[in-house]
Design goal:
The protein is mainly alpha-helical and about 425 residues long. It has helices at about 45-55, 80-95, 100-110, 115-130, 135, 145-160, 160-215, 225-260, 260-270, 280-300, 305-315, 320-330, 335-345, 350-360, 365-420; strands at about 25-30, 35-45, 60-65.
């Protein structure tokens, strides 16, 4: 049966207001029992801190701005894992019955990162002024994407914000874990190539020239393999800086083109899916993200059409993004999602069958969650297998390179030994 879709409620745009800068103040005072006490408090001014202390029953005797240390180790940025953790903390506190304002206030005070405290402070200020949480999150798109905000808005409309935050936290945690595994799968082959190039370059630049000085006194023709290696060594010594310059320029241009051109990004996405072993991991990772995103949005009450749009953006690959957007168009025209998925020729039969069962039974979110779990486990197993395979491959590659150079350098010595013998 076809999944009916509801019309999305229009997003409320909010004009951001100027927020006063928050500082840390050190204070000393006397509490209600006449005992001396002291501590630190955040505020925009000394007057604000004094009023807060008086409201807490403390008579302030001295308030001063906390001086910044001369040398700071830096202000760590907010990572995706930080956002997953803070989402889980919000979900846990809301489920325990802690009010939303109190939850954000406690997290803002206790977080170890200054930037996170400032971010939560801005959100808290908006929520305290009566602005819905989803609208308070919307200006901070760097940390709260459209999917996150739409899910929170759905939770606010349904009155189940704690359940939605739990789902968002689970989604973020699993997404970051999957992303970490895929990065691990990509880094290992790159590490093999980089190590092999580095070892070879060092040998050609510093070791081979020493042998060349020895060979000059032989007075005999060197073997062809040795001459080939010596030629590479001379070329590298005379123009290594030119080679390094061109490699740097190529890498810089590629990074810039990848950052600025959607066409380049799409071509890279299509290429990496064709890489043996790694491409299979990326295929499974994209399907896991598609299933997990769609399950989370559908369970939170987001219409299927909007959920497919979010899943397309979260798939992480242009091939799957285009396929999911095509599915979305077919579903909008009245086609069942499992039929639309089959027309793309990209999704495996198992995934399509699970979606079909979910559509017919009315439990599409549960089926998609099961599919996501299956593919996440497959990605985990594939990355572990790749990790165990890469180590011997690295040894073979480096051993072959180093062994080949050693053979090339010792061939003339063996040849001279035969002549002397």
């Amino acid at each position: 049966m076809a999944i009916t879709t509801a019309k999305r409620k229009p997003k409320v745009k909010k004009t951001t207001k100027h927020q006063p800068k928050v500082f840390t103040y050190q204070w000393k005072g006397v509490n209600r029992d006449g005992q001396r006490t002291s501590g630190e408090l955040k505020g925009s001014s000394i007057a604000e801190v004094r009023s807060v202390l008086k409201a807490q029953g403390v008579t302030p005797k001295g308030v001063r701005k906390k001086s910044e240390p001369l040398f700071k180790l830096g202000n760590p940025k907010i990572t995706a894992m930080d956002m997953a953790m803070i989402t889980r903390q919000i979900a846990t506190m809301l489920a325990a019955g802690v009010p939303l304002v109190t939850t954000i206030e406690l997290l803002a005070r206790g977080h170890e990162k200054v930037k996170m405290r400032e971010l939560l402070g801005l959100i808290l200020s908006d929520v305290q002024s009566g602005i819905p949480l989803s609208d308070a999150l919307r200006p901070h798109r760097r940390y709260f994407d459209d999917l996150y905000v739409d899910l929170v808005a759905a939770g606010e409309h349904s009155g189940s914000l704690d359940v939605v935050f739990d789902r968002v936290a689970t989604y973020r945690e699993k997404s970051e874990a999957l992303k970490s595994k895929i990065k691990k799968a990509m880094y290992y082959p790159a590490a093999v190539v980089i190590v092999a190039i580095a070892v070879t370059s060092l040998l050609l630049l510093f070791v081979v020239p020493q042998f060349e000085e020895i060979f000059k006194g032989f007075g005999a023709e060197l073997p062809a393999f040795t001459q080939f290696v010596l030629g590479i060594s001379r070329a590298l010594q005379s123009s290594w800086y030119i080679i390094a310059f061109f490699i740097t320029i190529i890498i810089f241009l590629f990074i810039r083109a990848h950052r600025n051109s959607q066409l380049v990004r799409d071509k890279v996405d299509r290429f990496i899916l064709k890489i043996p072993i790694v491409g299979d991991i990326l295929h499974k990772g994209a399907m896991a993200r598609f299933a997990r995103t769609l399950a989370t949005t559908f369970a939170a009450g987001v219409p299927l059409i909007d959920g497919l749009e979010s899943a397309a953006g979260a798939s992480g690959n242009a091939v799957y993004r285009d396929a999911i957007l095509k599915i979305r168009q077919e579903v909008m025209s009245g086609m069942q999602m499992n039929v639309a998925m089959r027309t793309t020729g990209l999704f495996p039969d198992m995934l399509i069958q699970m979606v079909m069962i979910g559509e017919e039974s009315g439990s599409l979110d549960n089926m998609l969650n099961k599919v996501a779990n299956i593919y996440e486990m497959q990605v985990d197993d594939a990355v572990d297998a790749l990790s165990s395979l890469i180590e011997p491959i690295m040894m073979v590659v480096i051993g072959t390179v180093v062994g080949g150079l050693i053979v090339a350098m010792y061939l003339p010595i063996f040849q001279m030994g035969k002549i002397v013998g």
